[in-house]
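Homework help thread (please don't just give me the answer)

Our assignment gives two proteins as sequence + structure token strings and asks us to describe the second one. The first is just a warm-up. Here they are:
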Amino acid sequence: LKTAGLHSELIKVTDKLGDNAKTNKYILLARASAFLSLNEIDEAIEVAVEINKIEPDNVEASVILAKGHYLLGDIETALIECQNALRIDDQSQGVNQLYGMIRNV
């Protein structure tokens, strides 16, 4: 519950930043992660897509997209996003584990 409160506060703070928050990939990554932690999957995916517009080869955004689509039951898209992340960083142990987990569903 404490973590959820922190994530909710993070979202409120970044909302107040306005347009500045919409172009800063670090703020967007924090927002996307917070939405994902709060199980607000559609919002997390939406923000991760915005990150990809700013930086198409962002591993963290691809991981958020993979997790989000997995949680929504869209295994095919989740696997595609994992493959995108692995294309960017094929040495990432976390991405490899996520890909293996989703692939074995």
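The one we have to describe:
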Amino acid sequence: MLAKRNPSQIHALMLTSPPTYKDITTPIPQSELERNYNFLRSPIFGNLAFSLLENRSVIKFFSNIFLFAKSRPCDEQWLDETEKEACMPARTPVQAFNAGLLQH
């Protein structure tokens, strides 16, 4: 309904299925969580990984693969906004999510 009422703002919808029951009910082992989180929080490796991932060309690459249609790739405004938002405080929730804490 939201898309139908706002056709000028919503070009397409992508429907996804929820995770499998096994994925929801099977926690990631504590040792794996700690390893992942410590890597992402590491002053050397974590900073290096985030520095690479926050690079404008990498953001453009992954945005076009996962967030935008091939016919309408991300624009300069999108990239400018992502650069503004890429900062140390924004890394903490990303680190937690990528470590698997939401699946524990």
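TA reply:
I won't write it for you, but here's a hint about the kind of observation we're looking for: The CA atoms of residues 68 and 74 lie 6 Å apart.
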